[in-house]
Design goal:
The complex is a heterodimer of chains A (376) and B (250). In chain A, 50% of the residues lie in helices and 16% in strands. Chain A is an alpha+beta fold. Chain A has two domains: 4-43 and 252-374, no CATH class; 91-208, no CATH class. Chain A has a six-stranded mixed beta barrel with strand order 2-3-7-4-6-5. In chain A, a hairpin with a 6-residue loop joins strand 2 (85-99) and strand 3. Chain B has one domain: Rossmann fold. Chain B is globular.
Chain lengths: 376, 250
């Protein structure tokens, strides 16, 4: 079989270049947008993904980590009784008002009160061991290096949270938050900083299991007991998903992403289909001749679709290569970008869908390939 | 009734048109291009239709080859009535039985001469080996054996038209239609194309119908039909002993 589609694509590559660029840039835009959104909104589940807990216990109906309510401290002993549970520790979330030594005004901070012991679960993946150990000092806090200016503070300086004095004993990285600033301290310090008399117990309990793969089952088992007041359980994976989804969809950010994805699709499809239509029109007399010789319209359509496929595939290849370079560049500049397999697949699907739609549009102009018009 | 044929009465005509009419409407204007034309063509002959531009000769070619439908009348090609075939069946008919050569050569810029010829054969259900054998043979027949790896941009006008003829010929069609095949070529190349078309009719028994106002073609044609205003004015056989008019068709 003579590979008409591919040979034409190679021989007349200049003609197809705009379509490949359009597809490529549409793919690249989409890829970076998704990576940025995942990176930024992924930070809303940092508390979960940066920790080594397998099961989270918190107030029922909690929509994101930052919107938890206190639960009864006695739940801890109930959870510990489950044979699958290896370790349980409280996690206290306090919304605070930071007043730094420099003139910054009030800064809204998210205080995370964690167990500072070496085998603590919270932030075990995000906080270096030496910094964690320093949190054991009373009123010691650790902040991310990216927020020092925002907080108007330097290492060793003191500030106040909710009117209580704290001292910065360490500076970490990778602790950026969305909509505020993360401040890490010990459970004892957090209790002192919480000025709400209604807050009696911890905001969450986090548990590590002997077999992490049992998280779903154990979470389900621990749920539904009301003897200790209202609480519910999630596997860490589920809670992270809930948290990210809340930010994506309940804040309108997700709608923005989808809207932009639609625009990118539309613009890419318009440019690509126009290029493919021009390519079809450029060969319309040859196509008509083939049709006169009895080659069916269906076979000609296949040629156009195949060209669209190759344009999509080559554009995707370019977008992929450039995307990796740009992601590495972003990483090196502390820009949060994350790409996972479903997101990458979504990008591929979008780009190939764009190419397919453009191919279908170009196929319509094959109707002009009427062999009778060659006899004039 | 006088029909425009002088072949032996035993062989059925390869192409038969009966009372064919065709009009084009543009806006309020209605132009009658063909008006009750009847015609019969025999296998193995090179028939030339000549006439001034706008006389309807290209429309007649389109109708006889099944590229256009008639308003009234009937066209029989190789025993099939074309008017009864749907679009798919017409495509299939053309694929199996017809070849075309157009004024413009209409070759794909990206393909070599060999691939241009091989491409339609791929769609005929021939094996790869058979398709290649036929492509090779027909390119040799039009004298392009040494040029078949070249793309159209590397071929002269005459060579391009020979590739187009080879593309039609390789299908081994019973009917070969040519529309002004020499008008874009110089004298020498035009002469070569005429010789090839004539040889195809002779050697393969192909019914060749050629539309042209090129006077050089007349001497090579077995039969010359002169058209004007949608009717056939004269029907001559330049080489026949009685090369006089056989009458005006109905």
């Amino acid at each position: 079989m003579v590979a008409l589609a591919r040979k034409t694509l190679i021989y007349e590559w200049r003609r197809f270049l705009p379509a490949m660029l359009a597809v490529g840039f549409a793919g690249l835009l989409q890829l970076l947008q998704i990576a940025l959104v995942l990176g930024i909104f992924g930070s809303t589940s940092l508390y979960i993904t940066g920790s080594s807990a397998d099961v989270w216990i918190g107030y029922p109906g909690t929509q994101s980590v930052g919107s938890g309510r206190t639960i009864d401290a006695d739940v801890e002993s109930h959870v510990l009784m489950d044979p699958a549970v290896q370790r349980v520790e409280p996690y206290i979330w306090v919304d605070g008002d930071w007043r730094g030594p420099a003139e910054t005004g009030g800064v809204s901070v998210f205080v995370s009160g964690i167990d500072p012991s070496a085998d603590g679960l919270m932030f075990s993946k995000a906080l270096p061991a030496d910094l964690r150990a320093r949190l054991a000092e009373p009123d010691a806090v650790v902040v991310d290096r990216s927020v020092l200016d925002q907080l108007g503070v330097e290492l060793g300086q003191t500030a106040t949270i909710n009117g209580h004095p704290v001292r910065v004993v360490g500076i970490s990285s990778g602790l950026r938050a969305l909509g505020g600033v993360n401040v890490l301290c010990s459970l004892d310090t957090a209790r002192r900083l919480d000025d709400d008399p209604a807050d009696a117990g911890p905001t969450y309990l986090v548990a590590r299991l002997r077999d992490p793969s049992q998280a779903e089952a154990v979470a389900a088992r621990l749920r539904g007991d009301t003897a200790f007041g209202p609480y519910t359980t999630w596997s860490a994976k589920d809670f992270a998903k809930i948290s990210v989804r809340y930010w994506l969809f309940d804040t309108g950010a997700g709608a923005g992403v989808l809207f932009l994805a639609g625009i990118v699709f539309l613009v890419g499809a318009v440019i690509t289909s126009q290029t493919l239509i021009a390519a079809v029109n450029g060969s319309v007399r040859e196509y008509a001749t083939l049709n006169a010789l009895g080659v069916g319209v269906g076979a000609l359509r296949k040629v156009v679709l195949e060209q669209a496929f190759w344009v999509g595939a080559l554009g995707l290849l370019g977008a992929g290569a450039l995307g990796v370079v740009l992601m590495l560049l972003a990483r090196s500049q502390d820009v949060p970008v994350v790409l996972n397999v479903p997101a990458a697949l979504a990008c591929i699907l979008l780009v190939m869908g764009l190419a397919a739609v453009s191919g279908l549009a170009a196929m319509r102009s094959l109707r002009r390939a009427d062999p009778a018009t060659l006899l004039r | 009734m006088l029909t425009a044929t002088s072949a032996t009465p035993t062989s059925a005509p390869a192409l038969l048109a009966e009372g064919v009419s065709k009009a084009f409407v543009s806006g309020q204007q209605r132009t009658q291009v063909l008006d009750g034309l009847s015609l019969s063509l025999n296998a193995g002959e090179l028939t030339l239709i000549s006439g001034p531009s706008g006389c309807g000769k290209s429309t007649l070619l389109a109708i006889l080859s099944g590229l256009q439908k008639v308003d009234s009348g009937r066209v029989h090609a190789l025993g099939s009535e074309l008017g009864l075939l749907d679009l798919r069946a017409l495509e299939r008919f053309r694929l199996q039985h017809t070849g075309f050569v157009f004024q413009g050569f209409n070759l794909f810029p990206a393909l070599s001469a060999f691939e241009q010829v091989e491409l339609p054969l791929n769609h005929m259900g021939l094996s790869r080996v058979e398709a290649r054998r036929r492509a090779q043979e027909s390119l040799e027949e039009v004298g392009l054996a040494h040029r078949m790896r070249l793309r159209p941009s590397e071929l002269s006008g005459g060579e391009k038209q020979r590739v187009a003829i080879a593309r039609a010929l390789a299908k081994e069609p019973e009917l070969l239609f040519a529309d002004e095949p020499t008008s874009a070529l110089d004298a020498a190349n035009g002469q070569m194309i005429i010789d090839i078309l004539h040889r195809i009719a002779r050697a393969h028994g192909t019914t060749v119908l050629c539309v042209s106002h090129d006077p050089r073609l007349v001497v090579h044609a077995d039969r010359v039909l002169a058209m004007e205003d949608g009717r056939i004015l004269s029907d001559r056989r330049p080489h026949a002993p009685d090369a006089s008019d056989h009458g005006t068709p109905s």
